[in-house]
Amino acid sequence: MVNSQLGTEEKILEAAKKVFHRKGYEGARMQEIADEAGINKALLHYYFRSKEKLFEAVFEDALSGIMRLVSTIFFSDKPLKDKIQSFLCSYLNIITENSYIPWFIINGIYERPEQIKAIFDKQDINPLQLMKLLKSQVRKEYGVDINPFQIWLNVLSLSVFPVIAKPLVREIFRLSEETYNQLMEERKELVPELIINALKAYEKGEN
Amino acid sequence: MVNSQLGTEEKILEAAKKVFHRKGYEGARMQEIADEAGINKALLHYYFRSKEKLFEAVFEDALSGIMRLVSTIFFSDKPLKDKIQSFLCSYLNIITENSYIPWFIINGIYERPEQIKAIFDKQDINPLQLMKLLKSQVRKEYGVDINPFQIWLNVLSLSVFPVIAKPLVREIFRLSEETYNQLMEERKELVPELIINALKAYEKGEN
DNA sequence: GTCTATATTGTGATAGAC
DNA sequence: GTCTATCACAATATAGAC
What we know:
The structure is a homodimer. Chain A is mostly helical. Chain A folds into 2 domains: 1-49, Homeodomain-like (Arc Repressor Mutant, subunit A); 63-206, Tetracycline Repressor, domain 2. The first copy, chain A, has helices at residues 8-27, 30-37, 41-48, 51-74, 80-96, 101-111, 113-122, 127-142, 148-164, 166-173, 177-206. In chain A, helix 1 (8-27) runs antiparallel to helix 2 (30-37) and helix 1 crosses helix 6 (101-111). At the A-B interface, helix 1, helix 6, helix 7, helix 8 and helix 9 of A face helix 1, helix 6, helix 7, helix 8 and helix 9 of B.
């Protein structure tokens, strides 16, 4: 049950986030969202018309959140290593309270590719700008020319995958919640070093 | 429509793979599987009794495939870098024809945690054995003591995430299928180097 | 705006003929 | 073993009272 201080629309949105984040579009049930919000199904349709529209609102919220985080950090003027570390820390802290979001976003494009593509088209942040910046920053700080998409894939992979695969990895190796969180904590140092080391190695190889 | 040379049970299983891999449990429809197999719904139940059981067969197949690949490569006696590279190459080649499998497996534990845990319990390969081997191999080859889980997380992250996130990344940056595949091809060299560089850097730092 | 009741369709599963 | 027909129920969505 969601905080009853909120207006009805907000209550619905908060409930919908909880359910969609956890179950995805196909797995989510309007009834469950209504229960979670402490209202009945009819009101969901009164405010959002359809499951599809409600999902859209939830997805847009999650997407804009992560995009805002990325652009705030990576369009700043800190050294690259600091950016990567800030991103990782902020990301992991957000995820602590909302660990289903990364899966939810990736899952979205598998479940509803057309709808999600339309949502992306509405975003105003230009991701190619970020790649340009990344490329020039690497050239300036490390004196090497590297495909920025590869660096970005590395950053995302090392940051996001361990969060998404957490339930699976925990099950495979029988790791406690605590043990796994400890691993993630260590990665806040380890991942930036890994990526920067690679750039430095490249730097030496080039000269 | 699946190859009509196969027996009915095999036809069903192949059709079920196609549909479940692509849509997951919740998104899949028994009707669609029947159509894909060129038979009717009743036969699905005749052979597999329920959607749950059919899903179980498909999931076990996918899981045992990837586990067999991992253990074949990592329990061999090649140098670590060769193992990582072999894994990445084999993995990416398999994925080329079956690009939904990584998502399907991770998604499974979000959609059906209890069922998937039971399937894991039936697997006979011991993953902790692999971590022990990894740890001792790193100590022998690089003279450093590192938490093998971190190394393994890095290998998996850098190999698997770019496959899972492919539809999303392609959409965000408007990359063609061809361009993205080219990126992946480059990673067959890039990723092993990245991981090995990190170990070498650690080696120097320790001495 | 919010509720109850209901329409409508989708979907897993089974019965029973052949 | 395979099919058609159908059940039983779940799920989205709407009608209409208050």
